[in-house]
Amino acid sequence: MNHIILLLAVLALFVMPTSLVWLVGRRAGFPGWMLLAFLLAGWLTVFVGWSLSQRAQPFLFPDTSPCFGTRSTPVSQYFPPDSFCLHTDGELRTVNGPDAKLVFWTAATTTVAVAGAAVVWRRRRV
After folding, report:
1. Model pLDDT, residue 43
2. What's the CA gap between 45 and 111, in Å, rounded?
3. Cα–Cα–Cα angle for 49, 120, 109, nearest 5°?
4. Which regions in the chain score pLDDT beneath 70?
5. Cβ-proximal residues to 31 (8 Å cutoff; 6+ apart), any chain
6. Total-model pTM
7. For the chain, what is the HEC assignment?
């Protein structure tokens, strides 16, 4: 029963939005490479953003959480995605390095750039 619920969740959260974007994009006449780049960069943005914002939460990664065992409280920020440990002295310290943030911002910028290029491509075609 749990496998069926997991399969339905994957279908609803991943397959349906992807196929909807693909079908609408093909109907609008966008090239396949543009749709593929948009979908890959978009899903990378979603997954990296989620992992950046939830990294300090001990219930997700109990033994590897940077806040676990330091008497600090995990704090999540959703945009821009980041995780912090709130220490007893009141200082917020990030747990994500600059490389992970660079991946997020590169993917987000690529997603927006491909969407903008699609608009320009569509306007010139009509």
Report:
1. 93
2. 8
3. 20
4. 58-66, 68-72, 126
5. 121
6. 0.79
7. CHHHHHHHHHHHHHHHHHHHHHHHHHHHCCCHHHHHHHHHHHHHHHHHHHHHHHCCCCCCCCCCCCCCCCCCEEEEEECCEEEEEECCCCCEEECCCHHHHHHHHHHHHHHHHHHHHHHHHHHHHC
Query: Residue holding tokens 């747990």?
Result: 95
Residues in the chain: 126
What's the pLDDT score for residue 60?
63
Q: Are 53 and 81 in contact (CB under 8 A)?
A: yes
Q: What are 93's strand-pairing partners?
A: 85
